[in-house]
Amino acid sequence: MVMKKLDLRLFRFMKEMKGQVIATCCVILVGIILYTALNSTAINLSNTLNEYYEETNFPHMFVDIVKIPENKIKDLEKINGIDKIEGRIIKEVPLKVERNEKNANIRLVTIDENKSLNKVYLTEGRFIEAEREVIVLDKFAKDRNIKLGDDLKVQLGGKGYTLKVSGIAYSPEYIYLMENEQSLLPPEGKFGVVFCKEDFLQNSIGYNNQYNSLLIKIKDEKDMDIIKDILEDKLDKFGLKRITERKNQLSHKMVSDEIKQLKKTSNTVPVIFLGISALIISVIIGRMVAQDRMTIGILKSMGFSNYDVLIHYTKYAFIIGAVASIIGSVAGLMLAGALTNMYTAYFNLPLLTSNVYYRYIVLGFFLTSGVTIGAGLMGARKAIKILPSEAMRPEAPKVGKRILLERVTLFWSKLSFSWKVVVRNIFRNKKRFLTVTMGVAITYMVTLFPFYQLSLFNSMFVDHYGGFQRMDYNINFTEPLNKRAIVDLNNIIEADIIEGKIEYPFEIENGWKSKVVNIIGVKYNTKFYNFETLEQVKTHLPRDGIVLSENLASYLNVSIGDKVLVKNFIPYKDDVEIEVRQIIKQGLGINAYMDISEMERILVDKNMVTGAYVKTDVPIKEEIEDGKKVNSVESIQDLIDTTKKFMKLTLSSVGTLVVFAGILGFGIIYNATIMNISERTREFSTLQILGFTKTDIFKMILKETIIMTILGITIGIPLGIKMVEGVVASFNTELYTMNPYVSGKIHLITMGTTIIFIVISLIFTLKKINKLDLMEALKTRVS
């Protein structure tokens, strides 16, 4: 019965402190929402992916090759460990469009209803029956509004063909539609995949009973490396270009990297919010115990044990945690469903596996309960030391003494009375001052990241297309040509600047680590690349040796001066060791670079080019993309325009993160300020008797807050930079490298936003000051 009375007292106390209770609940709420939502979404996405792969029989390995006869493929199936191997033809061609339509490149991929690997997931129409019928990838069909029965006109070997759309489908190979490693954000409708009959493409390009791509399913993934080595030896004579394992396949890598990042975020960000809430609860209960000193003495004199008193105050923490956990888990599950839907649409997944994972509700509840109960016990621990006999008397006032600044007479004499009160209060309540200051610092740190993220996307894409790459057009030929082709091309387009290039896949090996990447050969003093060292010093390509992008060097664990083995897929060329002469910054993609003359000498044929870079103000895409030897024409401006569209989409996610940071900041500042007022109620009431108005008192609190804000932001700047560096190091992938540099502009925006959060909390504080009861505050009473 007595405990019930204590519970009523607790609920009454919580009602009086509802502002602090709600603010603390919100901080926990955000942490649990993120914990539940991100974990559930990661599992949903992973399960959806696995189910989709199983249904479509997604291969374990993809082989790009110059040309291999069908009968030789059957011989490869005899390799121990290979379950199934199938051939196909891939050919990239320009899509012929009307004058008012956007140009596009399409990748023609052969399919056969009798083949079992990498099956398309048909959503509209039927499978191909006639020779010139095709199935269009769903994403490309939506981007260009392609319907069943529409005609697609393509240029193959200098000859035009009209293809009829019989179906629209998804493909596990193109969950994220990317043309190559460089086009992380492919322009909508500019690149697509079209599936056609084998006979049609074989006859059109002269590949009778021959293939240039292999799909391989293996029995045990543990044998992957052994099978890969055997295939490299056997396929070398057929012009092996590259062997790509499933884990390195572009589309799969994008999705799997996103799942990994979701898991990392779900295990780090909620910890920040729960940790801050624990600190807030601990401080609040500590202040409650200090204010309830006499009440605790009475309770103990009535027979309540230390355990009973601890439980009483810990219940405050537990109730807040339990309520926030339940609401947060439900909201997190709802958000997980929405996020899963968003990801399946973003990644072009036709299936959706979305379940309720009750374990995260239970784990979230126990996690929150453990954190809040621990914080409650930490805050209430001083109640154990309170003796009933001593608690009956008011606590002896602290011994007053001059603070250090009072000894600096010249400085102290110039301060007004209110400023002296402010400075004394800061020095005499160091714990509270440090708590609020660190609260501001953490708020700044958490707020900095979303603004950095927005700036990062801008610099990553815009700086890459236009900063790192200086060309207007990137032209790729259907096959390696003689350098004279560059002169012929320039006679057609009359470019301001034109340079030939060699871009060819090689396997670069360092010890047990290896990576298949495109080595790009350009002039050592090329006008089309702005190479910078890791120290951001501009540099040219060396005349000999090889230059690696930062992410490639990191993956291979090599430094300048090391030698790497470049394994050549060209049949008559030997593998060579090449010295790493420089490591450069590259935001997108993973590449190696060489002087084109040196590359001709040791890796490929002399006077060979595989494409060209062009600088011109004249639109040339339509003029040359139908050329017999032109495989694709990439416009850098198209990529920049796509980036700008993507930036608009990221604003919503950045806004959400800023709101979460605001909740965190508000929870810290509001709770700390309210505790400050509660502890100093008698002091403020005394000041009112001395003639101070409530506005004067608010100004004093404002002055304290300004000092704590300035110091908190000063501490928050290096903390924020360290957090960004940590996140960048954790989230960098092989496809992109994030620069941890935070500009002064971002710091200014973060400062302004942090100050807005503090101002909002002060507005609520002003309401509390206006409710101060002068006479009631001066009474000594027991609640």
Describe this structure in words.
- It is a single chain.
- The protein has 783 residues and is an alpha+beta fold.
- It folds into four domains: 1-58 and 247-396, no CATH class; 59-246, no CATH class; 429-467 and 637-783, no CATH class; 473-616, no CATH class.
- Helix content is 52%, strand content 19%.
- It has 23 helices and 20 strands.
- A six-stranded mixed beta barrel has the order 3-4-9-6-8-7. Strands 13-14-18-15-17-16 form a six-stranded mixed barrel.
- The radius of gyration is 34 Å and the shape is elongated.
Please give the structural blueprint.
Layout: H1 2-16, H2 18-56, E1 61-69, H3 70-76, E2 82-88, E3 90-96, E4 104-111, E5 121-125, E6 133-137, H4 138-144, E7 151-156, E8 159-170, E9 191-197, H5 198-205, E10 210-218, H6 224-235, E11 240-245, H7 250-291, H8 293-301, H9 306-346, H10 358-380, H11 388-391, H12 409-412, H13 417-428, H14 430-462, E12 473-482, H15 484-493, E13 497-510, E14 513-522, E15 546-549, H16 550-556, E16 563-567, E17 576-584, E18 591-595, H17 596-602, E19 608-615, H18 621-624, E20 630-635, H19 636-679, H20 681-689, H21 694-731, H22 744-770, H23 774-778
Parallel strand pairs: 4-9, 6-8, 14-18, 15-17
Antiparallel strand pairs: 1-10, 1-11, 2-10, 3-4, 3-7, 5-8, 6-9, 7-8, 12-19, 12-20, 13-14, 13-16, 13-19, 15-18, 16-17
Helix pairs in contact: 1-9, 2-7, 2-9, 2-10, 2-19, 7-9, 7-10, 7-19, 9-10, 13-21, 14-19, 14-21, 14-22, 19-22, 21-22
Domain MacB-like periplasmic core: 21-232
Membrane topology: Multi-pass membrane protein
Subcellular location: Cell membrane
